[in-house]
Design goal:
Mean pLDDT: 98
Strand content: 5-15%
Number of strands: 4
Number of helices: 8
Strand order of the largest sheet: 2-1-3-4
Low-confidence stretches: none
Bound molecules: glutathione
Radius of gyration: 17 Å
Shape: globular
Helix content: 55-70%
């Protein structure tokens, strides 16, 4: 298995999951300017990471990759057994992937949505405000829980990754004590530390 990533971007979630799974894999950093070059576009026509290559399978979209890994390696217990618990896990995965991650796209990818500097600032401000609202929701969900759904799952590395972004843009998370405690626990996790080290982030 081979993971293509940009250091600290959303494939960090995939790499943490791979570390938790504990099977051999390779990881290759892709330079940002390579993402839109023909060689990489042949892997992912969108020109974004993560991309996971496993034998003949070339898989894109972080949430699909996380679910694939959880299904391929059930012994890692990153997806629960019952249909209801799996649905709940997918719901929080979608929340992080489609809602939280997307609000950061307005911050980090603002130049892709507007050319005017004032519009870009407005987009970044709206994205940050939306992220803050969404973090407050997931903070409530984490109340009394070690993991987002109550048990460790593919959601946790993704939430950790976007919370790193929140810290990077100095988003005020002081009203989210459960999220901050979750972030500290994840920082202390051996798999998280291994993934950070592999991506040159510590
Ligand atoms: N919908 C995709 C989005 C992936 C995505 O936004 N990747 C970012 C990094 S977090 C990226 O590659 N950005 C570089 C670019 O789009 O040029 C997914 O969930 O995997």
């Amino acid at each position: 298995m081979k993971l293509y990533y940009l250091p600290g971007a959303c494939p960090l979630a995939t790499q943490i999951a791979l570390e938790w799974i504990g099977q051999p894999y390779e990881a290759e950093a892709v330079a940002r300017d390579q993402l839109k070059q023909p060689e990489f576009l042949a892997l992912n026509p969108v020109g974004s990471v993560p991309v996971l290559v496993d034998g003949n399978l070339v898989l894109t979209q972080g949430s699909a990759i996380l679910e694939y890994l959880a299904e391929k390696f059930p012994e890692a217990e990153l997806m629960p057994d019952t249909i209801e618990a799996r649905a709940d896990t997918r719901r929080w995965l979608a929340f992080v992937n489609s809602d939280l991650h997307k609000s950061f796209s307005l911050v980090f990818g603002k130049a892709g949505f507007a050319s005017d500097a004032a519009c870009q600032d407005q987009l970044a401000a709206s994205g940050s405000a939306k992220a803050a609202q969404l973090f407050a929701i997931i903070d409530k969900q984490l109340e009394g829980k070690e993991w987002v759904t109550g048990v460790r799952s593919v959601v946790d590395p993704y939430l950790y990754t976007v919370t790193r972004w929140a810290h990077a843009i100095k988003l005020d998370l002081s009203g989210c004590p459960n999220l901050l405690a979750f972030f500290d626990r994840m920082n202390a996790d051996a798999g998280v530390q291994a993934a950070l080290k592999a991506q040159g982030l510590q």
